[in-house]
């Protein structure tokens, strides 16, 4: 990839001895309005340094660099040097990159460093509701983005499979459970037991003692409790795995909280030794008042450990096992304070690498009809949402392709229906709360997944119509006459394609897949403008080959962008 910003910084720094290349690099901008050039250099800062008017500095620089082969035109406008790149050179280099198949968009800024991305992390025996989809989908995309940046990524699912609630579940099962029901419908059934437990415990408080004992026995490793708990876990995982399969999502490790059950004592001892542990109403806490936070709970009065205790052990285990460069947690913003608390405790223990543990928060999703809350018992299973999306898409696809066979419709309905949900998830800045609306998700003309996928299929259709010979010539850029790609709509598209790799870098730095979502919507819109404005399959062979080359580049850009979100790019739809 030619880095024009760097090239330009070098040229400008070469003209002005007072300016370093790095400073120039910081100043060079890409103007919003293409009429102001591909790149612009503001001279305000130099004006102070050189005690000259910024206009005259801009004029001097513009004149000095105007005849470089890199530029078609250089203009001084007020305090700015506006630079227009030589279009054919720019288009050629961009298309060369774009023809590099699946590598287009990738860079190696990560240089093989190891990054952990923890995502999904649902709770056993609780439904995987539409709120959980965010962690799963955002986390998966962050994983894909970091891979594309040349990092090694370890994908972890920190399943919530431990804690006092399992005592309650065990007791509930013993009183009212039925093996077959659990097997048939694990999560709904187990959740039902859990709800029933709370209702009954209101009337019979002794149930709470029973549950505490059951959890204590589980922690001690009593055979019967462990067996039941393992079974609940297995059955629940079967359901989660079905959803992961639909989403095409995998993990390298699915060690839940229970994995750390024997790794916590060490920190409790360490905290004690360092004088950080205090007793408060029988519980052990770390006081965080000094840092403006409520205390971190380490053990309960009955000695049992907590969510927080397990997160401390987990972070240290990950550092010792993987020596990560970054350890990323994709977890809802409701847990912001909680993450600050436990990270503070890790810091107080003296582990300065905690600065490399990053909580990537996201806002809440609600449904149009207001359903969301698990606690209210009105749960929406992600699986239902996905199935509904596939069904609705199937209808649309069947209508658009009346002659198509069942298998084709089925395949596309999956790719587009599930993709639509993923895309919607990743469209908004992740910290914003948003309302999930079916009409918006499945709109083929809006800024949606189906729209972008449809544009990909449109590119594929243009290539089919162009025929193999033209396509082969277009792939081999040697024979392409780039002067046919100088129009505004072609050039606007080229500029967006050029920016793709940098967009991926930015999305990685900000942990923000929506930057990619936005960018591929822009590419799709630019392609559609090009498609409407110009006659791509021209009778003039040279023109046709050039325009088909740009179509291949756009197709590669869209496909690779979709892949970073965890989506498929259908050839027909
Ligand atoms: N299971 C938790 C929940 O559903 C999320 C776990 C987040 N990860 C962590 N390391 N605490 O709320």
Automatic annotation (TrEMBL):
| Molecular function terms from GO | arginine-tRNA ligase activity; ATP binding
Stored InterPro entries: aa-tRNA-synth_I_CS (IPR001412), Arg-tRNA-ligase (IPR001278), Arg-tRNA-synth_N (IPR005148), Arg-tRNA-synth_N_sf (IPR036695), ArgRS_core (IPR035684), DALR_anticod-bd (IPR008909), Rossmann-like_a/b/a_fold (IPR014729), tRNAsynth_Ia_anticodon-bd (IPR009080)
Which Gene3D superfamilies did the record assign?
Arginyl tRNA synthetase N-terminal domain, HUPs, Isoleucyl-tRNA Synthetase, Domain 1
Q: Where in the cell is it found?
A: Cytoplasm
- Xref: SMART domains: Arg_tRNA_synt_N, DALR_1
> What keywords are annotated for this sequence in UniProt?
Aminoacyl-tRNA synthetase, ATP-binding, Cytoplasm, Ligase, Nucleotide-binding, Protein biosynthesis
Q: Is Nucleotide-binding given among the entry's keywords?
A: yes
Which E.C. number(s) belong to this protein?
6.1.1.19
Q: Which SUPFAM superfamilies does the UniProt entry name for this protein? A: Anticodon-binding domain of a subclass of class I aminoacyl-tRNA synthetases, Arginyl-tRNA synthetase (ArgRS), N-terminal 'additional' domain, Nucleotidylyl transferase
Tell me which residues make up the Arginyl tRNA synthetase N-terminal domain: 6-85
**Enzyme class, spelled out:** ligase
User: Per the UniProt entry, what is one GO biological process?
Assistant: arginyl-tRNA aminoacylation
Q: Where is this motif: 'HIGH' region?
A: 122-132
Pinpoint the DALR anticodon binding domain residues. 452-573
| Reactions catalysed, as given in the entry | tRNA(Arg) + L-arginine + ATP = L-arginyl-tRNA(Arg) + AMP + diphosphate
Alphabetical GO CC annotations of the entry are: cytoplasm
Lineage, top-rank taxon, reads Bacteria
| PANTHER family assigned | ARGININE--TRNA LIGASE, CYTOPLASMIC, ARGINYL-TRNA SYNTHETASE
Q: How does it assemble?
A: Monomer.
Q: What family is this protein classified in?
A: Belongs to the class-I aminoacyl-tRNA synthetase family.
The molecule here is called Arginine--tRNA ligase
Q: Provide the species name.
A: Hornefia porci
UniProt lists the gene as argS
């Amino acid at each position: 990839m030619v880095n024009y910003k760097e090239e330009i910084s070098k040229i400008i720094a070469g003209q002005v001895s007072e300016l370093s290349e790095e400073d120039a690099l910081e100043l060079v901008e890409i103007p919003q309005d293409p009429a102001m050039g591909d790149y612009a250099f503001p001279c305000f800062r130099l004006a102070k340094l050189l005690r000259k008017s910024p206009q005259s500095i801009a004029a001097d620089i513009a004149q000095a660099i105007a005849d470089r082969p890199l530029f078609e035109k250089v203009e001084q406008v007020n305090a700015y040097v506006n630079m227009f790149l030589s279009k054919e050179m720019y288009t050629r280099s961009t298309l060369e990159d774009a023809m590099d198949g699946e590598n287009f968009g990738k860079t190696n800024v990560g240089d093989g460093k190891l990054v952990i991305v923890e995502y999904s992390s649902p709770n056993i025996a609780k439904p995987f509701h539409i709120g959980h989809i965010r962690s799963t989908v955002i986390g998966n995309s962050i994983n894909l983005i970091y891979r594309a940046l040349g990092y090694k990524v370890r994908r972890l699912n920190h399943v919530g499979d431990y804690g006092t609630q399992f005592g309650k579940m065990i007791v509930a099962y013993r009183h009212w459970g039925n093996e077959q029901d659990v097997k048939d419908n694990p999560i709904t059934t187990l959740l039902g037991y859990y709800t029933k437990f709370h209702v009954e415990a209101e009337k019979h408080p002794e149930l709470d003692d029973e549950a505490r004992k059951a959890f204590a026995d589980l922690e001690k490793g009593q055979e019967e409790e462990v067996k039941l708990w393992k079974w609940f876990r297995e059955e629940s995982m079967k359901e989660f795995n079905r959803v992961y399969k639909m989403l095409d999502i995998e993990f390298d490790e699915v060690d839940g909280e229970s994995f750390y059950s024997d790794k916590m004592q060490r920190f409790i001892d360490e905290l004690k030794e360092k004088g950080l542990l205090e007793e408060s109403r029988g519980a052990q806490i770390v006081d965080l008042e000094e840092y403006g936070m409520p205390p971190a709970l380490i053990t309960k009065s009955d000695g049992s450990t907590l969510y927080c205790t397990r997160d401390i052990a987990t972070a240290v285990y990950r550092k010792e096992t993987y020596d990560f460069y970054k350890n990323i947690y994709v977890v809802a913003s409701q847990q912001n304070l909680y993450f600050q608390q436990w990270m503070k405790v890790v810091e107080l223990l003296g582990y300065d690498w905690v600065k490399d543990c990053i909580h990537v928060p996201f806002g809440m999703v609600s449904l149009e009809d207001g359903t969301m809350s698990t606690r209210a018992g009105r749960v929406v299973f992600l699986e239902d949402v996905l199935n509904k999306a596939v069904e609705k898409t199937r209808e649309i696809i069947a209508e658009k392709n009346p002659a198509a066979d069942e298998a084709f419709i089925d395949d596309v309905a999956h790719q587009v229906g599930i993709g639509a949900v993923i895309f919607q998830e990743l469209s908004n800045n992740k910290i914003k709360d948003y309302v999930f609306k079916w009409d918006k998700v499945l709109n083929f003309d809006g800024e949606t997944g189906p729209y972008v996928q449809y544009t990909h299929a449109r590119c594929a259709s243009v290539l089919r119509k162009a025929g193999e010979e033209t396509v082969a010539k277009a792939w081999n850029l040697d024979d392409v006459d780039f002067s046919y790609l100088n129009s505004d709509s072609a050039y606007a598209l080229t500029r967006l394609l050029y920016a793709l790799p940098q967009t991926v870098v930015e999305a990685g730095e900000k942990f923000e897949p929506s930057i990619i979502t936005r960018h591929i919507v822009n590419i799709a819109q630019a392609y559609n403008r090009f498609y409407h404005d110009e006659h791509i399959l021209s009778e003039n062979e040279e023109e046709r080959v050039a325009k088909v080359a740009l179509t291949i580049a756009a197709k590669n850009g869209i496909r690779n962008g979709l892949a970073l979100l965890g989506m498929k790019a259908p050839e027909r739809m």
